[in-house]
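User: Second chain of the day. Same drill as before.
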Amino acid sequence: MGASPRNPFIPTFGVSPSVFAGRNAVVEAFGRGLEGGVGDPRRALLLSGPRGIGKTVTLNELEDEAKRRGWVVLRAQPHNLVPLLVDTAIPHARSTLSQQPEGRRRITGVNIAGIGGVRSEIDDGHDPAPSLITGLNSLADEAGADSGILVTVDEVQSAPSDQLWELTAAVQDLMRDNRNIAFAAAGLPEGIATLLQHPGTTFLRRAQHSNLGPMSPEQTAEVLSQTAEAGGAAFDNEALCLAVGMSRGYPFLIQLIGFHLFERAGAGGTITAGDVEAVRDDVLDTLGQLVHAPALSGVPPKQEEFLVAMAQVQEELAAVPTAAIARELGATPQSLTMARQALLRRELVYSPKHGYLNFTIPHMGHHLLGRGLRDSGWD
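Assistant: Same format as last time:
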């Protein structure tokens, strides 16, 4: 017997899905910035959004866009930002470039992830770079005028502020010297907002900012149906409509729903409405563990009370009147203003229209009301 067909859905954070959709405008604009030459404002980009919204995947696509143009990609790690670039990533990239035949220095992309604690000991005839600026300048020299350098940072809110300042100052310095360099970073909204208040982050405040939101119903249906087809399965119309509705356009949830449905239907199978209902509990449990619980970590008690009350009065996934939350808490809407504003800043809730709130991450209410409830089958 042959091996079972691989599940084409990928519910793994940071791994690019089989079908990429919904962020094409961001990627294309960044690509035009790379083509636009030194000084193009689109060469500095800051992505933000809640967990699972597709920030890392979009960052991957930006890197691929640069590689297609022969740019060198330096993927910096937030917890050891500058040392790994200076000691590992830049020397590795220079070594790779130096091995290219003369006249072929426009490489198709070197993706250097400074991870694993591996320190480069390559004897390539170059002295160790004494600083980040000189290292980047040397790399730019070797890359040549037809190439460029893209530096990316994921989870940028976790980077030490002094190292982030050093990195952005170096990037800005190379830009002022008419070097082909670009910068893209991604992070959680609240962390980025705090980061941008630091006096050393002027460069980031001036960068173009893209706050990633849910995909449209049409884009969601496209991803679900095309990915299933790639694995040899198909949705019937009712199942596709239900799966789209359950996902609310949330990229990680789209992949998670699709993964469970494909496991149930298999290659050559047809996904039905019954399948969507059957996987619902497993999907929401996984979403709660991987997305809801981390998002709620550190939320103060008063704000959590607000969220629980909101969950108790929410019907299906509809927006909730602020007045209804106040009634549930036995309070006035005015007395809840501070909690409401804090939750908006955390991007745990959003306001689709005046006087109403909804959860930013789908099914948050289900998680809030179900925490600690476990049916063992004996009670």
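The chain has three domains: 24-211, 217-294, 301-370.

User: Great, on to the next one.
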